[in-house]
Write a structure and sequence with these properties.
Immunoglobulin-like; elongated; 4-stranded antiparallel sheet; alpha+beta
């Protein structure tokens, strides 16, 4: 029998109900259609692994070291160490000194001495130094003369003696003099420089001379500090004692 319009309508309605029932069944069973995206059918996307938080750790202080730091003395107004006086014996520590120097074909001997006590000298002292210059050996006949004797302290710019003339020192003669050493408050010693100009006859009786300048030096030492050094030591010691407070 031929289909009627009413019959086609009933057939279409039945097909629609069948599809709806199939979809409902899928939803209720939790299944998915292979190849189709969905909460249970598609593969899960890659997710980064969870990062565990890192807790900062603080080192625990050592009670013993903390206590040591707390008890350490604190330097306040620290001052430099007190100066230390360094005694200098000098060339006349024993009271006398002899120097032997070349003089043409001869030897010039200079004896230095003092009648004072060198152990008591300080930079404030003004010791008196005596000297005697002579030619070593027996007379040989030629004349030997001192034409200038000079003594100075270069550190102080002081001239202690400047004797000019014509003084025989060939044996048995000698040249003698003395100087007063000026105070040198800021020093531990004083150096005296001596200059002696000699005329030596080339051949006895000819009156022809050669000239020679001889240099010598003498160091005056100070075993004890003077007023300036003593005050510096005392002040430095007091500053050092007050420099550290607990």
């Amino acid at each position: 029998m031929p289909a009627t319009p009413g019959g086609r309508k009933r057939h279409g309605t039945g097909a629609a109900l069948s599809i709806l029932a199939f979809g409902t069944a899928l939803t209720l069973s939790g299944c998915s259609i292979p190849g189709l995206p969905g909460p249970t059918g598609a593969p899960e996307p890659n997710r980064p692994a969870a990062i565990a938080p890192v807790s900062a750790t603080t080192p625990t202080p050592n009670p013993a070291s903390t206590l040591a730091v707390a008890k350490a003395p604190v330097a306040r107004n620290a001052a430099p160490a007190a100066p230390v006086w360094k005694p200098v014996r000098g060339d006349l520590a024993s009271g006398s000194k002899t120097h032997r120097l070349g003089a043409a074909a001869h030897t010039l001997v200079i004896d230095y001495w003092t009648t004072e006590d060198p152990a008591s000298w300080t930079p404030d002292s003004s010791p008196i130094i005596s000297l005697n210059a002579r030619i070593d050996g027996a007379p040989t006949g030629e004349a030997i003369k001192v034409t200038r004797f000079n003594a100075r302290v270069d550190a102080l710019g002081a001239v202690l003696a400047n004797d000019t003339g014509s003084f025989a020192i060939d044996p048995p003669y000698a040249y003698s003099s003395g100087v007063v050493v000026p105070a040198n408050p800021k020093a531990t010693s004083t150096k005296i420089v001596f200059t002696i100009d000699l005329l030596t006859e080339t051949v006895p009786g000819t009156g022809i001379f050669t000239r020679q300048t001889i240099l010598d030096s003498l160091t005056i030492g100070y075993p004890k500090p003077g007023a300036v050094a003593a005050a510096a030591v005392k002040q430095g010691g007091a500053s050092t004692a007050q420099g550290v407070k607990p």
